[in-house]
Structure formats: C-alpha cells, structure tokens
Amino acid sequence: MNIRKHIPNSITCLSLISGCIATVVALQGNLLWAAIWIIIAAVFDFLDGFAARLLKAYSPMGKELDSLSDMVSFGVAPGMIVFWMLSQASLPLGEIGRYIPYLAFVIPTFSGLRLAKFNIDERQTTSFIGMPVPAHALFWASAGYSLAPLSQANNVLFIVVTLVVALATSLLLVSEIPMFSLKIKSVGWKGNERRYILVVCAVLFVAFFGMLGIAGTILLYILLSIFNKRH
C-alpha cells in the first residue's frame, strides 16, 4: 500500500476535525477557542494542498474531501459563531428574538454555494473569483471573538450591523470579483507585491490589535483584490 498518497487526505481530515471542534465550542459560547480551532483548520487546509503538490498525490477523492471539510470548518463553524452572538444579543427581545439567530445560517448557505461554484469553475485555477471560504471564516472568527462583548451595549444596533455585514461578506463569496491567491511560484518581489504587503500588514495588525487584526487583514485582502481589478 502506498502510504504517501493518503497523507494529504489525512491532513484534510485533521482540518475537518478542527472545524467540528470549532463548531461545538462556538455553540458553547467559547469564541476564543472557536477562533483558534478555525485558524488551526486553515493551517491544515493549507498544508493538505502543499502536501499534495509536494508528494504529487492528487486524487478526485481528495478534491471532494477538501470541499466537504471546508464546508464544516469554514462554513458551519463561522456560522455558529454568528449564531451564538445573535443569540446573546437577541435575549432581551422576547419571543421575536428567538428567531433572529437563525439568520446566521446565511453564512453556511453561501459558503456551500461558493464551494459548489468553485468546484465547477475552470477559471479559478491560479486565483479566485469571489472570496475564498477560509478567508471568510477567519474574518468571522476574528471579528466574532473581538466584537461579541459589544452585543449587550445596544442590542438592536448590534444585531442589524452583524446581519448586514454577514450578508455583505456572504455575497462576496459568490461575487465575480477576482481575488489573488497566496500561492507563490517565486520569492521575488515582482508579481508578489500584494502578497508581501498583505503578510507584512498582517503581522503589524495582529501585533497592534491582537485577534481583531486578522479581520483587518481580511478586509485589506479584499481591498487589494478590488484595487488590482480596477488598475
């Protein structure tokens, strides 16, 4: 038996497990660990592709497994973070507040649409069209943990802003906006300008703003992609 060809799929399974854990702890209200497990899932998601390329261990099963893993780790898990946030914010709103948290399911729904679109879209081989689901999940993991304490300051405003941003970012998943990939073919500056800018800014953002810096990095990623489209 060729063990080498199973290594990428094993790493993908670790990403899936991490997403399952993130989902559970998010529903328990532990948004810090939910964010950490989503970040761990993202690391495994990067490593499985790296391992597949390094070992030349591509397979149709691996492609399908990767999408299924992404759906849980970067679709369901961030959706449950927003679900818990809305649950806490809507508690004082009585009977109507019971139904508001379910609007968070817009995130896993559009994540599923994004993944299905990606699998059949032959244009997305070296770059992305629309926001990739790991970036979307990292945004909500970071913003959810950092901003959840604000849910009790002004419940209605918090709910409205959260839902508007959730819908906006979810629409970005299925948009036609070209977005660059972090995969590099060479270490030179030319052709990798946006990637290096993003990495340097990510370090600075996290150093100054902690977990919220990850959300800032994702917003910068979106802006750099849009700016490149227009120029």
CATH architecture: Up-down Bundle
Write the CATH homologous superfamily. Answer: CDP-alcohol phosphotransferase transmembrane (TM) domain
Q: Describe the largest sheet.
A: 2 strands, antiparallel
- SS-based class: mainly alpha
What is the CATH domain class?
Answer: Mainly Alpha
| Distance separating the two termini | 51 Å
The total count of helices amounts to 8
Spans of at least 5 consecutive residues with low confidence: none
Pfam families: CDP-OH_P_transf
Protein name: CDP-diacylglycerol--serine O-phosphatidyltransferase
GO molecular function, one term: CDP-diacylglycerol-serine O-phosphatidyltransferase activity
Keywords: Lipid biosynthesis, Lipid metabolism, Membrane, Phospholipid biosynthesis, Phospholipid metabolism, Transferase, Transmembrane, Transmembrane helix
Model description:
This protein is mainly α and 231 residues long. The protein has a single domain, classed as Four Helix Bundle (Hemerythrin (Met), subunit A), CATH 1.20.120. The protein is built from 8 helices and 2 strands. The chain has a two-stranded antiparallel sheet. Helix 1 (7-27) runs parallel beside helix 3 (60-89) and helix 4 (106-120) packs parallel to helix 6 (155-173). It is globular, with a radius of gyration of 18 Å. The termini are far apart.
Properties at a glance:
231 residues, mainly alpha, Four Helix Bundle (Hemerythrin (Met), subunit A), 8 helices, 2 strands, 2% strand, globular
